[in-house]
Amino acid sequence: xxxxxxxxxxxxxxxxxxxxxxxxxxxxxxxxxxxxxxxxxxxxxxxxxxxxxxxxxxxxxxxxxxxxxxxxxxxxxxxxxxxxxxxxxxxxxxxxxxxxxxxxxxxxxxxxxxxxxxxxxxxxxxxxxxxxxxxxxxxxxxxxxxxxxxxxxxxxxxxxxxxxxxxxxxxxxxxxxxxxxxxxxxxxxxxxxxxxxxxxxxxxxxxxxxxxxxxxxx
Length: 218
Hints:
Blueprint lengths: L2 H27 L7 H11 L3 H11 L10 H30 L7 H28 L4 H34 L10 H27 L7
Helix pairs in contact: 1-2, 1-3, 1-7, 2-3, 2-4, 4-5, 4-6, 4-7, 5-6, 6-7
């Protein structure tokens, strides 16, 4: 693995942590109207350094003072970050678990990562969506859970398509070999790129879900 990639990876990962910490501090001082977004914005900073801070200031902090619904593009973006945060937490836990367990599927560690990460991401995503729905709509817990499953499934699938496609490209073509694992900084740099691509691939799905009334603008 080339030294320049290790240096770039370390710098970008540290920048992601710095963005997440700065966002978390500001969120603590300026709480979001929807409590789950107090988690979503800092998590977004982990994989979207600097840009996440700008988006938070524009769509998170400024939204606290806004009256009326956000523009459709903004609503779709915020909804995508909400979905993405569940995926990020699932991936951040799943990849080290697979490495520590030495798990493989069909002889491939990557396939085991896909299964574990997707399962955890789906669980986190549904939980995030559940609490969002409970905060926006009256109704029973069962109804909120059903709505969360309905709203998050397509969104999460769209996010994972972009993310998993990039990780497959890296695993098989860009950085093949045993040294590319969750124990290395370049792995997490590539995950940052993968999550950014997942955010992009999830955006159209969230835009449609909001337009169809499956998800509410956040």
